[in-house]
Every structure is written in structure tokens, then in C-alpha cells.
Amino acid sequence: MAEISDKLKQLMANRGVMLGTEWQAERQRTEQSRQAGDFEIEKCVPGEPVENEAGSFYLVRTDFPLDACQGGVPLGDIFSAGAEHIAVSACDEELAAFDPRSAVFIDIETTGLAGGAGTTAFLIGVGYFEEVGAVLRPAPDTGKPDSLVFRLDQCFMRDFDEEEPMLRFLQDVFKRAETVVTFNGKTFDIPLLRSRFITNRLPFRLDAAMHYDLVHAVRRIFKLRLKDCSLGNVEREVLNIRRHGDIPGSEIPQVWLDYLRTRDARVLTRVFNHHRNDIVSLVALAALIAQRLSVPCGDGFDHAEDRLSIVRLHHRQKRYEAVVEHAIKLLECETDVYLRRECLSLLGMAYKRLQDWPQMEEIFNLMAQEFPSYLLPRLELAKHHEHRSRNLLEALRICEEVLENAHPLDRTALAEFERRKTRLEKKLKRKPQL
Hints:
By secondary structure, the protein is an alpha+beta fold. It has two domains: 254 residues, Nucleotidyltransferase, domain 5 (2-Layer Sandwich); 134 residues, Tetratricopeptide repeat domain (Serine Threonine Protein Phosphatase 5, Tetratricopeptide repeat, Alpha Horseshoe), CATH 1.25.40.10. 53% of the residues lie in helices and 13% in strands. The strands form two sheets. A seven-stranded mixed sheet has the order 1-2-7-6-5-8-9, sandwiched between helices. Strands 3-4 form a two-stranded antiparallel sheet.
């Protein structure tokens, strides 16, 4: 029996299993530590209480030098990212005035993800570039100011009554914000912050600022390839960041509610780390997108799907010269049928908008050869020959060829060709071509 008992104890030790008496003693030690305040936020997350006329809240401040990297991207690279490329990625010409020195990067953690009046932001992070030296001057050979750091203020509510002092502190920070940078902030973060400021009868200064919401830029550029454009996936696939020991965002609201009940802030260290990485990634992602867009002909992007997305992006903004430049370069090496077809289509429509009729005709003829069942190039060619080249016979031939060979389910397209064929026949009767 003694031998069996020894083997059982050894097995339990190897498995990390405690005896009942050991578990009870550990529970008592944990409770004593909790009662002594060893697990309070001040002991677990280095920071300091901040007081103002409305009360106090807890502030965790971190300064990052400009050469600090997130996913291999130095934070200072945001200063060499042209504002015009920020504007292109956002489809917002107003952001051509983007200046990192007057930008505020914002992310919040809340008591719920549904929004509404009952949802509170218990952790609000604001990042901004702050001067720490006496003289602001460019560092040698870099063009970047050597007296700046990226300062991240994580404002934390230790209880519900700390919301107003926290918001009053943020009022002063928001005064500097000419641009707000978020990830899905237009839909979630900013509306929720606005409601909390209004609830506390405080003016909300961010409504006057420009807004660069990176989720929309990311979707325009990377969705064709990634499908999942959540910040976590973009970090992995674009910034090459692998977070270890990260807490899932869906668990964070319950962590704070548990803290209110137990005053045990140990798990909150993971929340602060998660939140800190989210905001620093905003800086790196904005810099990376702008830098890649600045490379001519889309060569800043390694994947054909991303490069086609850039062609789409320029076409959406009616930057047709850029469409031609990027599309021609992509077509030189791209063989994928679907990517090539869309790229040719965008290129042909760009030439049409530029009124370069010979090039437009050449591209749509090439499309008609490469994709015999695709009707768009034939429709554009039929329009061109009817209204511009005045070759009514050629326009009629195209319509008849389509109607003879097209799939019968393409009813809408066939109806368009039927109407055009009828009109062309009437024109030819009135004015026969030699």
C-alpha cells in the first residue's frame, strides 16, 4: 500500500495536481493577497492615478522612440509616408493635409461590443507624437525629428465613477487632434466616445477633426487576397506580427467586469498589452500602406491581388492616368484569368474616360480575343463603332455575333444587344454604308 501511495503522489506531482489541503492553503494565500491589495491595478500594471476637478482615474503612459518597430516597421516611418498616399488609400482628398504631428491614434476597450447607451469604454488609448527635447530639429540624414517620441496614454476606469475625470483628461488631448486614426472607428469607437462625452455633458472635440479609418483602407487594398480584414489577421499577413499569449478581444469585457467584483487585476495585464499593440499597429500600418503606395506602378506590393486592388482604388477615384500606369505593369506578368480579365476591363474603361479611343479599341479587342464569352468588351466596341468611328456595319456585326453565340441566360445583356441591333438596322436603312 505504501508503494501505491508513493506512486500516486508522484503521479499527482507530475500532473501538477494538488492535494485538497494544499489547494485550500493556496486559496487562503490568494485571498490574503487579494485582501492586502497585492492584485490591485497599481501592483499589476505600472501607472499612476491622475486627478482633476471631477475625480481621478488610472493612467498608464508609454513612450516609444521613433526607431521602435512594430512588425518590422519603425514608427518614425510615418513621417516619410506622403500625405497624398494616405488620402488615396482613404479615398478622401481632405486627408492630403495629414500630418503625423497633429494626429491622434485611438482605440478603446468597452463593456460590450453591441454599442448603445449602456456600453462604456473602460480603457481608452490615445497615441500621439510628443516633443520631449528642448529643440525640435531634423535628425541627421533622416529628416525625422529627433526630439519626438510616440506617446501612448492608456486611460483606465477602476470603477464607473472614474469615467468623467477620464473624459476630462481626454478633452485636453483631443485639442491637438487635426486627424483621428482608428481601425473601424467610424462605426464603433468614435460614435461610442461621442455618446459618453454627451452623457457626461462634455463637448466632443473630435467631430471637427479629419478621420482616417484604416479598416476601409485595408479592405480596399487587401480584401481581395485576405478576405478576413480584422486587425489581427492584417497584423499576421501584412505586418508579419505573431502575438503570443494575447487575449481574445471578445473576452475583454468580462475581464473588466470580473475585476470590478474581485479587484484582481492580474488578467488585466494581458488586456493592456493587447490594447497597446492595437494602437501601435495603427501607426505601423498607416506608414506601411502609404510607403507601398508611393512606389511607382504598384511595385510596392508583392501579390497580384493587392496590385489589382490598387488599380481598382485609382479607378474609383477617377485617377485614370494612374490606372493605365499600374494596369499595364500588372498585365506584363499576370497570367491568372480572372485577375487579368478585370485588369484589362479597368484599363479599357480608363482609356475610355481619357478619350484615348485607339488604345481603348485595342484593349477591348484584346479582351474579346482572350475571353470570347465575356460580353463587356463587345458591348463597348459596339458603342464605339456606332457613335465614334461611325462604322455601323462593324457595330452590327458585333451585335449579331453576340446574339448568335451568347448564353441564353444572359438575358439582360442580350436585351441590350437586341435593342442596339434593331437601332443599327434602322440607321443602315436610312443611310446605307458604301
